[in-house]
TrEMBL record:
Signal peptide: none
Every DUF2520 domain range: 141-269
Name of this chain's protein: NADP oxidoreductase
InterPro entries, per the entry: 6-PGluconate_DH-like_C_sf, DUF2520, NAD(P)-bd_dom_sf, OxRdtase/DH_put_Rossmann_dom, TM1727-like_C_sf
Stretches assigned to the Putative oxidoreductase/dehydrogenase Rossmann-like domain: 8-117
Pfam families given in the database record: DUF2520, Rossmann-like
């Protein structure tokens, strides 16, 4: 049987994600019926912003007065929270329980399915800050949905109500999907942190460095949107400037630590992109770059060689 067009929603956990999605759904006309959380304060603060929403003193009460319960607790708490819920699909309470984690398998909700309830995953590809800005910044993002029908259709409608694009992944694909998504979020910050730490050796503060490189990063992202990853690739690898790459690897090798290794692994991916460019650099130049990279990865150290390309960098 399909879900109501505007099912009653309940939340267990009143953290950063819940603060955004519960308010957005309430504004979009979905009744948010109840919220329970470990500490009463955040649950009360959120419920006060949602017409008709009660603060429940235990998750079972949330299940009793909603159609779909979202477990918006830390990942390690999802299994225990699901285990503690009693679901009676033919009753007046919840018939579905959904978690919002990208990495945790949906099967962690199996105790709910064993009681005849529907289970699903609803993972927004967005870093929630717990701030008002989340309500507008989430628009245009994607939400990865893993659920059987008719819950999948309802979750798709909820994603659209946030202004997001629904995305579906095959069952069991969550861990790979989530590991890969890090590169577009936390690991982008890790790459910036490497820029900052290297530029600090030139006397720049983190603020100086970010002011200088964030507009370049924003431009790179826009170019990738227009021209794809290979088309947007710039820098020495895109031109086949093997001499520059070798010298930079040697310089970073000399700094110790894992600076050269990180640069080498990133360069490996850049070489793959360079090969896919409409006009790729010469095969010989890319082979030289790959040899230098593999030397570093194999722990043989970067070997400085005579300059092959121009001295100009970006
Ligand atoms: N934040 C993100 O950017 C983001 C993005 C996509 C998906 N997610 C997913 O969304 C889920 C929630 O993440 P979040 O960042 O919103 O977490 P969060 O900010 O740490 O909030 C978690 C909330 O759950 C409450 N809580 C903890 N244990 C509980 C329990 N056993 N029973 C009831 N409430 C409990 C916490 O209460 P206290 O107030 O007492 O600590 C807090 O209100 C996670 O599965 C996460 O993977 C998060």
């Amino acid at each position: 049987m399909p879900y109501s067009a505007t099912p009653r929603l309940g939340f267990v956990g009143a953290g950063r994600l819940a603060r955004c999605v519960a308010r957005a759904w309430s504004r979009a006309g979905y009744p948010v019926a109840a919220i329970a959380s470990r500490s009463a304060g955040p649950a009360r603060e959120l419920a006060d912003q949602l017409p008709g929403c009660i603060v429940a003193d235990d998750p079972q009460r949330v299940a009793a007065c909603s159609d779909i319960v979202f477990l918006t607790v830390p990942d390690d708490e999802i299994g225990a929270a699901a285990n503690a819920l009693q679901i009676v699909p033919s009753g007046s309470g919840a018939r579905a329980v959904v978690h919002c984690s990208g990495a945790t398998p949906v099967d962690v909700l199996a105790p709910v399915r064993a009681q005849g309830g529907d289970i699903g995953g609803f993972h927004p590809l967005y870093l929630f800050g717990g701030i008002d800005g989340d309500l507008t910044r989430i628009q245009g993002c994607s939400v990865t949905i893993e659920a059987p029908p008719p819950l999948a259709e309802t979750l798709t409608g909820l994603a659209r109500a946030l202004g997001c694009h629904p995305l579906s992944i095959p069952p069991g694909g969550r861990m790979l999907y989530h590991a890969a998504a890090h590169y577009a979020a936390s690991f982008a910050l890790s790459a910036l942190s490497e820029t900052v730490s290297l530029w600090q050796q030139l006397g720049f503060s983190e603020d100086d460095a970010l002011r200088a490189v964030l507009p370049m990063l924003a431009g790179t992202i826009e170019t990738a949107r227009d021209k794809g990853l290979a088309g947007a690739l710039a820098g020495p690898v895109s031109r086949g400037d093997a001499g520059i790459v070798e010298k930079q690897l040697a310089l970073l090798d000399g700094l110790g630590g894992d600076h050269a290794l990180l640069y080498a692994l990133m360069t490996r991916r850049a070489v793959e992109l360079a090969r896919r460019r409409p006009v790729p650099p010469s095969t010989g130049a890319l082979a030289t770059i790959e040899r230098a990279v593999e030397n570093v990865v194999a722990g043989r150290g970067a070997v400085p060689r005579p300059t092959l390309g121009s001295e100009a960098g970006e």
